[in-house]
Design goal:
This protein is mainly β. The protein is built from 2 helices and 15 strands. The strands form 3 sheets. Strands 1, 2, 3, 4, 5 and 6 form a 6-stranded antiparallel beta sheet that branches. The protein has a 5-stranded mixed beta sheet with strand order 7-11-12-14-15. The relative contact order is 0.17.
Length: about 240
């Protein structure tokens, strides 16, 4: 894991997270880039349970249920504090659509056998995290500019851990990119065996583990690795 992070750290930079400033007025103005889930006229930051009223989001092309990378502006009253703060959406970078998890039994030998450069920090969330039924991983890769294909396949479960495999099909090149991938963990449940489903559904929280192929700059070759995907409230709990 350490090698993966070190390999990418020198190659990629992530988006600026927060900038704020105090003005010679009765409020403080600033903004924050982050992932938010839309519900009506509110947005809820990723990995938090506090929602903020931002008003009409339709003009931004957003709707209830969307999970999006946004810039949210805030105005905090210097006398009354955050309780009197006002929030509004300033910019929509992208709506993040969850990808499906599949069995992977349609993949022929040698197919989806590409490697990534590694994983890179995404804002303040880190390079990989699991939350609200989604597995997230921010991958770095090189290609010729053609959009790569990423799949999360072959789920297995043991006790309180769900095991996943990230595979890719990337056309080689020297252009470098970073891409956040989000996968819907609900898709994994019906792919598990009966014993696996009965076992993992007993826990309040579960862990995820991801097998992937990345380029080891020390070995100067692609290698297979297993990383911790995260811990989250069990989406399979019955």
């Amino acid at each position: 894991m350490k090698k993966i992070l070190q390999a990418v750290a020198v190659l990629f930079a992530t988006m600026t997270v927060v900038t704020s400033c105090d003005e010679a007025t009765n409020y403080t103005k600033g903004y924050q880039d982050g992932i938010y889930t839309v519900w009506g006229h509110t947005v809820t930051p990723e990995m938090e349970d506090t929602s903020y009223v931002v008003g009409d989001v339709i003009s931004y092309g957003l709707k209830t249920g969307d999970r999006a990378l946004l810039r949210v502006k805030y105005f905090i009253d210097n006398v009354f504090g955050p309780l009197k703060a006002k929030w509004e959406v300033e910019k929509v970078y992208e709506v993040i659509e969850p990808r499906a998890i599949t069995a992977g039994d349609d993949i022929a030998e040698g197919d989806y056998d590409s490697y990534i450069l590694g994983i890179a920090d995404f804002l303040y969330y880190g390079p990989v995290w699991a939350w609200d039924g989604l597995q997230n991983i921010n991958v770095a890769y090189e290609c010729d500019g053609t959009a790569p294909e990423f799949r999360m396949v072959a789920p297995e479960a043991s006790n309180d851990t769900l095991y996943l495999s990230l595979v890719s099909r990337i056309k080689s090149g020297d252009e470098r990119y970073v891409k956040l991938l989000s996968f819907d963990l609900d898709d994994a449940y019906p792919l598990l065996g009966n014993d696996e489903r009965n076992s993992i559904s007993r826990y309040d929280s579960i862990y995820t583990s991801i097998n992937l192929r990345y380029y080891d700059f020390d070995e100067e070759a692609p290698v297979d690795a297993n990383i911790i995907g995260g811990k989250l409230k069990n989406p399979f709990k019955k």
